[in-house]
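Chapter review: from sequence to fold.
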Amino acid sequence: MGARKKRYNKRGRAKKILIVDDDLLTRQSLRKVIDQETNFIVCAEAEDISQALDAIDKQRFDLAIVDVSLQGTESVELIDKFKSRQPNLPVLAIPISVFLNK
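The token string follows.
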């Protein structure tokens, strides 16, 4: 992914979001929806627990959106690991494909 422009809202910088979903098209669709908002910016995407933890270790996020039906892993386990690395990180755990009509 190329360099992202910094985005700001009336109160300062846009909220940084991490998307975790094992389906590429779902991640791209969710990014497209979020990127239309000036208050939020998707800074990273992950398709599995390993990539998600790598992203969390590299930068701080304001929100992580996690698909509850990740293949090969427990979403609860991933959220616990997020909380051990960034205790104040809000995590939205949802069946993402439901919201994107998949």
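Two observations follow directly from the output. The CA atoms of residues 11 and 39 lie 9 Å apart. The first strand starts at residue 8 and ends at 9.
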